[in-house]
Amino acid sequence: MVMFAIVLAIISFILFRYFYAGITSIKASNQELLHRVSELNNQLDVISVKESKARHDAERAFDAKEKLLAALSHEIRTPMNGVIGMANLLAETDLNAEQKEYANTVLECSTSLLSNVNEILINDMLDFSKIDMLNDQLEDMHFDVHHCVEEVLDIFASRAAEKSIELLYQVSKNVPLQIDTDYKKLQKVLINLVDNSLDNTDSGEIVILVDARENEQGNKMLIEFRVTDSGNGIPAEKIKDIFKGTISQSAGEDGQQNGFGLVICKRIMNQLDGDISVINNADAGCTFTIQFPTNITHSTSLGFRDNRL
Fold first, then answer.
1. Of residues 21 and 238, more confidently modeled
2. Are 185 and 225 in contact (CB under 8 A)?
3. pTM of this prediction?
């Protein structure tokens, strides 16, 4: 009995030491985990402070850009308005044919320059700055594709009528009733593309075609917009650089007019996880294509329609 008690005591002691060592190890591990969690929380606090400072700096930089652009616009537009006013007065005086031609040339060039200043400084460059600052801020929403396109074409209806250009759109039957993406950014792309086509089309038509197909991800579709015009087309050697902002503006038969608008389109499509490309048509003009994924939220389609404005 004594021997049995001794053996039992030894076994109990061994078991006690084993469990004590395990509990001690668990406590040490818990302390280590708490220490790591504390360190991670401290790191997150530091990151949060840095992000807040970066956001504040970005907002200040954007405000500075706005003020700079406004100042540039004022400094350029004020003297240009003076030149245009004096040229108008000069054209109304008693001039011979050659002098009147010179005055009209000054007036036309000044007006065109002022228009370009307004477009580039106030619209394109400011939008470009906004995209830099709001690079990760997307506002997804459900919207009707037909309504989206019609709003864009309504903007250019009057301008297209002046040039006797037809504006049309067609939506394929397989396009969902509603799509899901950033409505304002998509419209900005379409506005820039239609504006670009109108600048480079003297007659004919501009057509927006909308199509959809299954994406590699099962719960998404790939939406495609094609903006086709019957204008000047783009010189083959310039197509590869059309979205880089390195091509100087050109007009007439020499090629497509381009400014920052197409660069902005490229940036926006990158934000939307999409792409933009352009090809020259076989007959005349060119076709810009944008593609982006959208969540499948509505299976019903509106069917095929077209619209002429």
1. 238
2. no
3. 0.57
